[in-house]
Amino acid sequence: MKTVMITGCSSGFGLETATYFLEQGWNVIATMRTPQARLLPLSERLRIVPLDVTDAASIDNAVRAAGPIDVLVNNAGIGMFGPIEGTPLDEVRAVFETNVLGMMAVTQAVLPQFRTRRAGVVVNLASTVTLTTMPLLAAYAASKHAVMGFSASLALEVKDLGIKVGVVVPGMAPETPFIGKGHTGRAFPPEYAPFVDGVLSRFRGYDGPVTRARDVAAAVWDAAQSVDTGFRVAAGADAQALFRRAP
């Protein structure tokens, strides 16, 4: 019986992925900043562990509490929406602290056990903002491009150690609290208002294919099982369509 450790399990993709792996019979270490046992089904194969990916001591404690794992899923992340001119750099730093540096720090903490066993899989969550240009997401897009670059380089570094690295790329996910968990540009210059209103109107009126949390959970499962078959795994109908068009 294998064990997966998943970051950011309090909602959205992380919560659904933890549930999915439990359904497949795995042991699951579901991490959250503030543990809430009621969010997941009762199971002797489930442990909920506190973890703040921006805190080094929290990471060390969580990895020790988790014990040996077979797969690490770096899912924890926050969003950011708004014109970059009106976005405080402290908020940009907060996005990178979670989406990039936190992901790197948790990976660093887990790699020693993978290296010792010469086995293990790291699955990182990116976004379709790495496949197509989208407005008002400059800082968030930059953070997810960083996830892609980090993952591609890491995959080469650890390949000969028996460690595999995959990236799951979700599309637009209306089920997830993207803005609620993240940051929005504050008081941006009024000249941007017509453009921002137009983008928001298009988002609200969009009725095309989207990504569901279950799509992401299934894609993470696929990446954990067969990461050798492809470095990037699309999650959701919209993400799959972008993959087909991307170079």
Structure description:
With about 250 residues, this protein is α/β, with parallel strands linked by helices. The chain has a single domain (about 5-245), classed as Rossmann fold, CATH 3.40.50. Helices cover about 45% and strands about 15% of the residues. The strands form 2 sheets. It has a 7-stranded parallel sheet with strand order 3-2-1-4-6-7-9, with helices on both faces. Strands 5-8 form a two-stranded parallel sheet. β1, α1 and β2 (about 25-30) form a beta-alpha-beta unit. The radius of gyration is 18 Å and the shape is globular. It starts with a strand and ends with a helix. The mean pLDDT is about 90.
Biggest β-sheet: strands ordered side by side in the sheet: 3-2-1-4-6-7-9
Query: Number of helical segments?
Result: 7
- Give the helices and strands as they follow along the chain: EHEEHEEHEHEEHHEH
The share of residues in extended strands comes to: 15-25%
Low-confidence stretches: none
CATH topology, which one? Rossmann fold
Instruction: State the distance separating the first and last CA atoms.
Output: 38 Å
Overall pLDDT metric: 91
- Per CATH, the architecture is 3-Layer(aba) Sandwich
Compute the CA-based radius of gyration.
Answer: 18 Å
Instruction: Please provide the count of β strands.
Output: 9
- Top CATH class: Alpha Beta
The outline comes out as globular
Share of helical residues:
40-55%
What is the fourth-level CATH superfamily?
NAD(P)-binding Rossmann-like Domain
Largest sheet: 7 strands, parallel
Structural class: alpha/beta
**Domain count:** 1
